[in-house]
Structure formats: C-alpha cells, structure tokens
C-alpha cells in the first residue's frame, strides 16, 4: 500500500471514548462508497470497540446558496420539485441534525434506492419520501433541508476534505486519541486486512477481534445487506452466501430486492 499520508487532526467538539477515530470521506452516490461500506461493516462487527467514526461528504459542488433558496421555494409551494446533484448530500446533513443514527439510517436508505434505481435520489420530493420511510421527524427534516445549518454542515465537510487534501473518494483518515499525533490517510479502497493491520499498528498490536454474529444477529444490526456484504463478513464465496440467504428467505426471515446490477437482502 503506497497511497498513505500522515495528517494533523482537526479540532473536534465531540468527546472520544474509544482510542481511534475514523474520518470516512465518501461521495454517497459513488459505487466505490458501497464497496467501502462492505469493508466498514465487517470492521465494525469485529473491531468497533476500538474506534468511533464519522462520514465526511466529499462531493465537490457549487452554488449552494442559490440551491438553498430553490429548496426553500419547494417548501413554500412555489416549485413542486427540483433535482440537483447537491440535494442528496444536503439531505444527509439535514438528517444528521436529528442525530448520528438518523444520518446513518438515511444514508443507507438513500444508497439502497440509488442501487436499486427505485427513486431518483437527486429529486427533492424523493428525498422527503426517504425521510418518511425511515421515520424521521419529517417536518423538522424539511425545515432543516432548507436551512443554513444543513448547507453550512455540508460546506464544513467540503472544507475538511480540502484541508486534509483528500483528492480521492472514498478515503479514510485514522487518528488516535492523542491530538498531538498525526493521522494516517489511506486513499482509495483496499482489502479488509489492510485496515485491520492499521488498527493493529495504532494500538501497538494489542487488539482482540470480536466473534462474528449469527445471520439473525447480523440482520438485526444491519437490516439490509448485499450478497457481497454477507460473503465478505463470513469469509465465504458469494455462491455460499446466496444459498444461506435463500434459506432464510424461504423461512420468511428475509426478503430479496434486486435488479440487473445488484441483489439486496432485507430483514422482514
């Protein structure tokens, strides 16, 4: 791996109770972000007792001020709907104002619709529907969507991306709890073992792996997974994973969602 770089840690207002913090830079609609998500899920399952994480949205976009005015127009009824490539990122930041878990649920549902092509996720109306699907406070979400706070939060992510000179997404920057120490930036997507090795080195080799969950436990934690997710998590082939998933579909535990490009499995 030769695409790594040391960086200074940005000032954070959150208190870190775990020794490692990950800054995960993604474009939410990039297919590579889905591949990164697969790796992150396994890392969370086995090692999340050592790290916290935050997503940093890193799609370079312009004219946020004019977009905010147009979004407010949607809410007042002067426009029925608009589409814009910035809208998904602003929607994710609006969801984040209801909490980190709300942001994570919203991002995953948005990516699900993008992968299955069941909604145009650059559409304002579709993004409101996604908030309803995951039971956010929709009135609050709509107000936040057109607010300066959501736009500023997105602009802050873009600022962090530039400040850390992240030129490729997805990327991850690893920091330890000592603010004086430099972080390690890993640009692009690598095998799972690379990220585990980084954790080992940052913890001086003193880490233990948590046991893998059962299938039922896995789908309680992550309600929707791809076949590849399951294969990677259990270190089996996609064919073996699909056989196990089909068994649970026949048992009415899972439902299958698919198109020509991807298959998702969702907890019933």
Automatic annotation (TrEMBL):
Source organism superkingdom: Bacteria
Subcellular location: Cytoplasm
UniProt xrefs under Gene3D superfamilies: Glutaredoxin (3.40.30.10)
Cross-referenced SUPFAM superfamilies: Thioredoxin-like
Keywords carried by this UniProt record: Cytoplasm
InterPro entries for this protein: Adapter_SpxH, Thioredoxin-like_sf
Keyword Repressor recorded: no
Cellular-component GO terms for this entry: cytoplasm
Keyword check for NADP: no
Subunit structure: Interacts with Spx.
Similarity remark: Belongs to the SpxH family.
Role of this protein: Adapter protein required for efficient degradation of Spx by ClpXP under non-stress conditions. Interaction with Spx stabilizes Spx and exposes the C-terminus of Spx for recognition and proteolysis by ClpXP.
Protein name: ClpXP adapter protein SpxH
Annotated source species: Lysinibacillus antri
Gene (UniProt): spxH
């Amino acid at each position: 791996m030769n695409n790594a770089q040391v960086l200074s840690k940005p000032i954070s207002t959150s208190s870190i109770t775990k020794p490692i913090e990950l800054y995960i830079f993604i474009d939410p609609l990039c297919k590579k972000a889905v591949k990164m998500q697969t790796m992150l899920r396994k890392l969370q399952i086995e090692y999340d007792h050592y790290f916290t994480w935050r997503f940093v949205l890193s799609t370079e976009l312009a004219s946020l001020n004019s977009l905010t005015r147009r979004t407010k127009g949607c809410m007042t009824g002067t426009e029925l709907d608009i589409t814009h490539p910035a809208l998904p990122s602003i929607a994710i930041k609006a969801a984040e104002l209801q909490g980190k878990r709300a942001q994570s649920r919203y991002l995953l549902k948005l990516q699900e619709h993008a992968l299955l092509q069941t909604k145009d996720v650059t559409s304002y109306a579709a993004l409101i529907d996604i908030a309803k699907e995951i039971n956010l406070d929709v009135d609050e979400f709509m107000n936040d969507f057109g607010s300066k706070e959501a736009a500023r939060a997105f602009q802050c992510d873009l600022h962090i991306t530039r400040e850390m000179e992240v030129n490729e997404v997805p990327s991850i920057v690893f920091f330890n709890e000592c603010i004086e120490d430099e972080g390690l930036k890993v640009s692009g997507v690598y095998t799972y073992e690379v990220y585990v090795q980084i954790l080992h080195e940052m913890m001086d080799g003193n880490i233990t792996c948590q046991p893998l969950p059962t299938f039922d436990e896995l789908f309680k934690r992550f309600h929707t997974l791809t076949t590849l997710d399951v294969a990677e998590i259990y270190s089996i082939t996609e064919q073996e994973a699909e056989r196990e998933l089909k068994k649970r579909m026949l048992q009415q535990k899972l439902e299958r969602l698919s198109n020509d490009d991807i298959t998702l499995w969702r907890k019933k």
